[in-house]
Amino acid sequence: MENTIPASLKGHFLIAMPGLLDPNFFQTVTCISEHTSAGAVGIVVNRVHPVLSAKAIFDELEIAYQSEVADIPIHIGGPVHVGEVFILHGAPFEWTGCFQVTPLLAMSNSRDILEAIAMGRGPESFLLALGCAGWGQGQLESELGQNAWLTSPVVGEIIFSTRVETRWEEAVRRMGIDPAVLSTTAGHA
User: Fold this and answer.
1) Which of 13, 15, 23, 26 could disulfide-link to 150, CB 3.0 to 4.6 Å?
2) Whether the Cβ atoms of residue 158 and residue 14 lie closer than 8 Å to each other
């Protein structure tokens, strides 16, 4: 089956192929929030920080929070800007600096959305991440040419409803591929 990669992968998942052994990206699912000729930026959606929770972020930024949001997990969004908080979220989209990824998904990293989440008034669906993934000009295209990634349109259910430890397998399955038979020589779907 012949399939072409869109000129921009904004609003797509990058699903790491089994042969991608870089520890930052092994078996990751990354939501691409921007992709232009200058490069790409995304958030890894299936790596949870082993120690930090939302409480640590709220305490660090001196944001008051309700006790029921203290244990929200913090994801490791990627190896770039590791000290910055990024939020992938559904509606509403009126936050300061909110960047639309798809009609149903945006990325923000402003204090107003963090304060709303801390008080239980944020978006219904969201993922908090420290750091992001970034690719320079032509880098992602080169990696795609080396079969490091599969690509598919973003599925919000995988980001917000699927258990973190099964997001990679579920993203692969949604492409019609059995993860058990996926090899390092597969093409792009």
Assistant:
1) 15
2) no
What's the predicted TM-score (pTM) here? Answer: 0.91
Structural domains in the chain, CATH included, are 12-175 (3.40.1740.10)
Assigned token pair, 47: 């790596």
73-76 and 126-135: which strand pairing?
A: parallel
DSSP 58-114: HHHTT----GGGTT-EEEE--SEEEEEEEEEE-S---STT-EEEETTEEEE--HHHH
Give per-residue pLDDT as tens, 86-118: 999 999 999 998 999 999 999 999 999 999 999
Q: Among 81, 168, 88, which Cα is nearest to 123's?
A: 88
Report the Cα 187 to chain-centroid distance in Å: 22
Residue for token digits 């958030």? 43
State residue 6's pLDDT score.
64
Nearest to 95 by CA among 114, 80, 75, 82: 114
Low-confidence residues of the chain: pLDDT under 70: 1-6, 183-189
